[in-house]
Amino acid sequence: MNKILTGIIAIACSLISLTSTAQIVSETISIQPGYTNQVFYSMNTGELSNITNMDWDIAFQLRGFAASILINSKNNVKLWKANKDISQWGSMMASDTMGVVNNPAYELMNSDTSWDFGAFNRTNDPNNQFDLGWGNYDFVTHIIYGDSVYFIKVGATDYRKIKIESLANGTYNFRFADLDGTNEIVVALAKSAFQGKFFAYYSLVNNVSIDREPIYNAWDLTFCQYLAIDPVVYKVTGVLSNDSVFVEKAYPVDVNTATYGANVSAGEINAIGYDWKAYDLNLMSWIISDSLVYFVTDRQSAVWKVVFTGFDGATTGNYYFDKSPAVASGLIENSSIKTFGLYPNPLMIMFD
Q1: Is the peptide bond before 346 cis (omega within 30 degrees of 0)?
Q2: Which of 252, 259, 302, 351 is the most buried (most CB within 10 A)?
Q3: Do 89 and 196 lie in a common domain?
Q4: Of 263, 265, 213, 274, residue with least CA distance to 240
Q5: Is the residue at 176 inside a domain?
Q6: 8 within a domain of the structure (yes/no)
Q7: Neighbour count for residue 165 (Cβ, 10 Å)
Q8: Beta strand pairing status for 221-229 and 277-280?
Q9: Residue-wise pLDDT tens for the chain (352 aa)?
Q10: C-alpha angle 335-338-344 in degrees, rounded to nearest 5
């Protein structure tokens, strides 16, 4: 019994020591002026890559069973479900875009809560587990056969038609063409060319595949501009989480004493998101909440305390935050999250 008590005391003392001496690291992440870049970030090792977010149009999920296909909303790519059957591909004309293109009823967007629902997946039947939106899974052949035709905008005035024909034997097969059927390009994109990655990327404009991500297991967060659905759709600048990264939001709290475990962790990719900041039109500057803490459980199950301290906006694209190892609440006396009656809430007028 004495040994057990001694062990408990030793653990408690070490946690108290960690609380008081845990190193706080101040980070600056820049996605560049105009938010042109995307940063992939590891909670343990820091920034892994900082790359342009303007050179791709669609992205194909390589892991799991969702076969998600994204569009690049940062690059103003837009997608609409054509009011046509896939068998009508060869007879489609530019006039078929009438009433569809630029019609919100037909426009499709990436989910901002899950990587499993890209814009191409958003027409799936939620009651049919084999319906993936752009196609249906055949449980006999284990092939996803495409059944949908889309119109896609990849430039200011560049509209095309596109269909995903299949995902078979680890290869996405798709084709796209000008609206009148000319300049048709057929692509076979093999998952094996992107070993260890989450998504494979493709530029319709340049007709080239792009390997632009770090290894899937290496990154926890990505800093970028994306479309938020809240429920009004608008472009925002924020932080999205990798698959199997969980975020606990603590608000309002004293950021110096807040501890992990008092709130429910969320697995949605926008659990951090964008609304930890707001633009104050009176001050003409970005304001950060001074009573907000995020606890991030990374892909290695380590928990980190994250406090945003600044944001520059489009001028530099800089994010500023402090991070440190987190300690669970309840393990240290008086360590549970405290709430106060009055806390300034500077989340004011507009988000970006």
Answers
A1: no
A2: 259
A3: yes
A4: 274
A5: yes
A6: no
A7: 20
A8: unpaired
A9: 444 444 444 444 444 444 444 699 999 999 999 999 999 999 999 999 999 999 999 999 999 999 999 999 999 999 999 989 899 999 999 999 999 999 998 999 999 999 999 999 999 999 999 999 999 999 999 999 999 999 999 988 999 999 999 999 999 999 999 999 999 999 999 999 999 999 999 999 999 999 999 999 999 999 999 999 988 899 999 999 999 999 999 999 999 999 999 999 999 999 999 999 999 999 999 999 999 999 999 999 999 999 999 999 999 999 999 999 997 765 433 333 332 222 233 333 344 5
A10: 140
Name residue, tokens 């296909």. Answer: 69
* Number of compact structural domains in the chain: 2
CB environment 218-254: b (16+ within 10 A), e (fewer): bbbbbbbbbbbeeeeeeebbbbbbbbebbbbbbbbbe
Query: What are the CA-CA distances from residue 276 to residues 116, 219, 263, 287 (Å)?
Result: 25, 21, 17, 9
Its domain, for residue 253, covers: 24-52+217-325
| Nearest CA among 303, 307, 311, 333 for reference residue 322 | 307
Tokens of 107: 């426009």
Residue 339 lies in a domain: no
